[in-house]
Structures are given as C-alpha cells and as structure tokens.
Specification:
The chain is of the alpha/beta class. Helices cover about 35% and strands about 25% of the residues. The strands form 3 sheets. Strands 2, 3, 4, 5, 10, 14, 15 and 16 form an 8-stranded mixed β-sheet that branches. Strands 1, 6, 7, 8 and 9 form a 5-stranded antiparallel β-sheet that branches. Helix 4 packs across helix 5 and helix 8 crosses helix 10. The mean pLDDT is about 95. The site of S-adenosylmethionine has 19 residues, from helix 3.
Length: about 375
C-alpha cells in the first residue's frame, strides 16, 4: 500500500480528474485521463514530487541501472559528433538527469567535447531534479547544459530519447465487426470506471490505418491501444533535424506483433513501487502509466518526414555491438564486490528476461554523413518493421 501522504496526493489528483470529467459532460477519453494522471500541472505523476525512478521509486530505466548505458551511447555518438561536425545533443524527457550526466562525463573520454547538451523536458519538477543532479555531481558541466521550452526550429546533431514514447498518452479501443469503440473514463461511486462509446473519426481512422497497413482485420471484440500522437511527435522532431541522427529507446514491438491476435487486451503497463500491473484507473498521480510502443508507427512517422531508418535492434544487441565489451576491459582486476555489481548491471541491461529483448533501439538518420553507428551492424531487424 502507498503511504498516507501518497494516498492523500492521489486523492487530490483524482479530484482534479473528476472535475475534468464533470466539465466534459461525464466522461473523457483514456488518452485524456492518462495525460492528466501523468502531466496535470503540479499534480500529475511526472509533475509532482514522487521519486519515480530507481530503487526508491516505482520503476527503473536503463540509465538508472548503470552508467554503462550512457557510456555505450556516448561511444555511438562519437562518429556523429566528430570534430568538424555539429556537436549538439538534444535529449528528450531526461527523467532524473542520469543519462545526461553520464553522457557528459563520458564524451570527453572518447575525444568529443559536446559544446551543448540540450534537454527538452515537459515536467518543471524533473527539470529541477536534472539540474540538481548535475550540480551536485559535476557542477562544471552545467555550463554545457541548456533546458529548452520547445524543439529548436531547425538543428543539426544527435537526438536521444529513452522511454519517452511510452509515456505519451494512448487511446484504448475495441474493434467489432463493423465499428470501432473508444474506451472512456467515467466516475461511478466516486471511483473511475470504463465506458465505451463510438470512436471519434480520428481514432476510427487510426484503427483503419493499422488494419490497412497490416492487410488484415482485427478480430471481433479485440481490445488494444494506439498512440495517436506518436506519428506527429516523431515527425515534428524529424522535420526540424536538418542533419543528424536520432536514437529512440523503448519497450516495444513491431506493428504486426503489437496487433497480433493473441495480444487481445493491449499493452498498457502501470508501475507502482516496482510492481507492474494493468489497472491504470487506480492511484492516479502516484503510479506510472505507460504503453508499449508500436515501433512501426515511429518509423512511419519519421520516414514520412524525410528521415531514413538506420536500424532497429534489441537493447542487448545495441549495447553488445556498440562497445559493451570494451567497457568491461579490466573487469578481472576489479574487486569481487565490484565484479558482482557490474555483472548485475550487465545482466539487467542485456538479458532477454530483463531489459535486453523487450527494449529496442530505433536509429533514424538524415544526411548524417557518417557510416551507420556500429551498434546497428549485426542483428538489425529493420525488415520486420
Ligand atoms: C519514463 S520517463 C523516462 C526518463 C528518462 N529518459 C530515463 O530513461 O530515465 C519519461 C520522461 O519523458 C518526459 N516526457 C514525457 N512527454 C514528453 C515530451 N512530449 N517531450 C519531452 N519529454 C517528455 C517525462 O516528463 C519524463 O521525464
């Protein structure tokens, strides 16, 4: 059970959402509910004080597991940021700031002095935490970091986003033989509950697009999610990047796997104190809500905006191709305790049952001018997208 303070906070968030539902006439779409539960100003999960990341929080992300993640990614950025090219890095949704800090520490070791590390973060609360983390560890690095309010109008460089696409609100739908219905959230006895209504045209079109591109009809009664904002999100980034590379990491699958007949109850994932479950309507504001990512949708949005898919690969492969072994040089000279800790981190990042297989990296390029980063050289699954 969450503690009393957390429960009290959740009640405030619930009140806020109940008011939104009342002013909307009795129900809101699940995407609206997810948006409010995560991002309601000063209240939502990402906009208020909960710890969120790491062992004291609700879930753990790759940069929180180990600096190895940032160090391999930094190695991959080297040819893309080599002297004479633009050394601009833009991280989207930087969470606690761990990836930014570890990248900034690692890049000079690999001969690259990033002139500017920009962060675009929607949560004012997390911006503060990111700044505090860098200030308390390596204050001299702060002069390289800038927080943006919006994407630059045009830019060149490298874009990084770890577990951001899964945090974008999704619509939940049910398909029947001749119609699409939208899952909405209403209030019954002061608690949130689901109701189904005919889907608005944009959602109907999104489901038809899935069926058209897969060349099949979804089965009668099939329930799933679609991130209707995802294509525009990536297209916006892609269309502003004149020259450069994008690394998108997330847990997700191809569209064919996402909408497979046996996955008939969707891909929502909620996290509360390291317990994963699939009831997004409880504990609003104090649990993380997310949905696995349809990587085909990301690739589609990016290619329609003129970028090329450079690779689509499991996180384990990304790390192993990208320099993990080099990072472990000297392992045998470490103390037993340090070896055990490093092994734990490597296992967590790479084992198929941990983060190795469910997490993928989609690499996108536009006039990048360098060979494909080595992380995509073997095990590329672009053909499956
Ligand atoms: C699951 S957390 C991941 C944090 C971090 N990247 C990590 O790996 O630990 C999602 C992050 O994305 C941010 N976010 C959500 N939507 C965003 C958007 N449209 N643009 C930028 N950041 C966003 C959240 O505030 C949060 O920092």
């Amino acid at each position: 059970m969450p503690d009393a303070d957390s429960l009290a906070h959740s009640e405030c968030v619930a009140d806020f959402i109940r008011e939104a539902i009342a002013s909307a006439g009795g129900s809101i779409s699940f995407a609206e509910f997810m948006h409010l539960a995560l991002y309601a100003p000063g209240l939502g999960y990402y906009n208020a004080g909960a710890t969120k990341f790491g062992s004291a929080g609700d879930f753990i992300t790759a940069p929180e597991v180990s600096p190895l993640f940032a160090r391999v990614l930094a190695r991959q950025c080297v040819p893309l940021l080599a002297p004479g090219t633009d050394s601009f890095i833009l991280e989207l949704g930087a969470g606690s700031g761990a990836l930014a800090l570890d990248m900034l520490k690692a890049l000079p070791e690999f001969g690259v002095d990033a002139q500017c590390y920009s962060i675009l973060e929607v949560s004012p609360h997390l911006k503060l935490r990111q700044e505090q983390l860098i200030r308390s560890n390596r204050p001299e690095l702060l002069r390289k970091v800038q927080w943006l309010e919006e994407l630059p109008s045009q830019f060149c460089g490298v874009v990084i986003a770890n577990e951001v696409a899964d945090a974008l609100p999704v619509e939940r739908f049910q398909k029947s033989a001749d119609s699409v219905r939208q899952y909405r959230v209403t209030v019954e006895d002061n608690r949130f509950s689901w109701c189904l209504e005919p889907a608005p045209p944009f959602l109907e079109e999104a489901v038809l697009h899935i069926e058209r591109t897969l060349g099949m009809r979804l089965p009668d009664g099939y329930v799933s999610e679609v991130s209707t904002g995802l294509p525009a999100w990536i297209a916006d980034i892609a269309s502003r990047l004149d020259r450069g590379f994008v690394f998108l990491f997330d847990y997700g699958v191809t569209r064919r796997e996402y909408y497979a007949a046996d996955r008939s109850n969707g891909w929502l994932r909620c996290h509360l104190r390291h317990r994963a479950h699939n009831d997004p309507l409880i504990y609003p504001g104090i649990q993380d809500l997310s949905a696995w990512v349809d990587f085909t949708a990301l690739a589609e949005g990016a290619t329609e905006a003129g970028m090329d898919v450079a690779g689509f690969i499991s996180q384990a492969r990304f790390l192993m191709n990208g320099g993990l072994e080099a990072e472990l040089a000297g392992f045998e000279r470490l103390s037993t305790a340090a070896q055990l800790e490093l092994s734990r981190q490597v296992k967590m990042l790479t084992l198929p049952g941990e983060m190795g297989e469910h997490f993928k990296c989609l690499g996108l390029s536009r006039n990048a001018g360098a060979a494909t980063p080595s992380s995509f050289v073997t095990g590329d699954r672009t053909h499956q997208l």
